[in-house]
UniProtKB/TrEMBL annotation:
It comes from Ureibacillus xyleni. Residues 5-147, 182-275 form the FAD/NAD(P)-binding domain. This is Thioredoxin reductase. Gene3D superfamilies: FAD/NAD(P)-binding domain. Pfam families: Pyr_redox_2 (PF07992). Homodimer.
Length: 299
């Protein structure tokens, strides 16, 4: 079995960017992706220079097409199920019962959302969003709802969104804000509803109204939510990468983890969301670290 220079796990902007940089450095790599990228539900990816408003799938297809220019890059459409480290090498196993061996591993599998109100998922990416920098422009001056439960999230998200629209209703789903928190929002004429949410109503991903357990309801057609996030796998932990007290993977800030030959890029590192551009930049940085280490080790 041929030993690859590096295996990149995750074909989002971080993994694609890393693969491009590795390919241009003539590294023999394999990029694994199973199509579960977080922004797959998004109608348009905004804010990436030269690609503003592009559909996420189109973004991936352009990147994949560019990678075809580099014969040392292979694309594997499969889910990685296990990574085993043996004798300074890594064996990667997939859901399709394939095995690959590599000197280095770059983790770029990203994160996924958790919603405390399951019906949010039906509208997420079409009429409910989490990032005002990504989707605020399209929602400007609309009557918006903000759904968040932790006070710090309520205040932070509401203040951000107020930049695009001042017609806001904040829903805390049963959580009472502090007097200070309430006062801070109410002085800007922002209504706060603390009642428990029963359901979100709409069609084909487009919100129409929100019902409360009390029987009351409000009409809103768009808004922003504050999800929780998690890593969809535990590869970093199982490979022995050290984490800080907040669960962030400790790195040297250019992709190297505390485990030799294990690198990380994009949202996987922080377990927090970031833009396409930031994730792509981190993918480039991590790839440069991989290339530099390979060159220095072999020189």
């Amino acid at each position: 079995m041929n030993v690859l220079d590096c295996i990149v796990i995750g074909g989002g902007p971080a993994g694609l960017s890393a693969s491009l940089t590795l390919g241009r450095a003539r590294r023999n790599i394999a990029l694994f992706d199973d199509g579960t990228n977080r922004n797959r539900v998004t109608q348009a990816s905004n804010g990436f220079i030269t690609r503003d408003g592009i559909k996420p799938q189109a973004f991936k297809e352009i990147a994949r097409k560019e990678l075809e220019n580099y014969p040392s890059v292979s694309f594997i459409n499969a889910t990685v199920t296990e990574i085993i480290k043996e004798n300074e090498q890594f064996t990667v196993k997939t859901s399709t019962n394939q095995e690959f061996v590599s000197e280095k591993i770059l983790l770029a599998t990203g994160i996924q959302e958790i919603f405390s109100i399951p019906s949010i998922r039906k509208f997420y990416g079409k009429s409910l969003f989490s990032c005002p920098y990504c989707d605020g422009w399209e929602q400007q001056e609309k009557q918006l709802v903000v759904i968040a439960e932790k006070e710090e999230h309520v205040l932070h998200l509401t203040k951000l969104i107020y930049n695009w629209s001042q017609d806001l209703i904040v829903l805390t789903n049963g959580v009472q804000l502090s007097i200070e928190g309430q006062t801070e929002l109410q002085k800007h004429n922002i209504k706060i509803i603390a009642e428990k949410i029963k359901d979100l109503i709409g069609n084909d991903g487009y919100l129409e109204s929100i019902e409360f357990e009390t029987g009351a309801s409000i009409n809103r057609t768009a808004g922003f939510v504050a999800p929780s996030y998690y890593r969809p796998n535990h590869f970093a932990e199982k490979l022995g990468c050290e984490m800080d007290e907040e669960g962030k993977v400790i790195t040297d800030h250019v992709g190297r983890t505390t485990q030799k030959n294990v690198y990380i890029a994009g949202e996987t590192e922080r377990s927090k969301p970031s833009s396409l551009m930031i994730s792509a930049a981190k993918g480039n940085k991590a790839a440069v670290s991989v290339i530099t280490d390979l060159i220095m080790e072999r020189f």
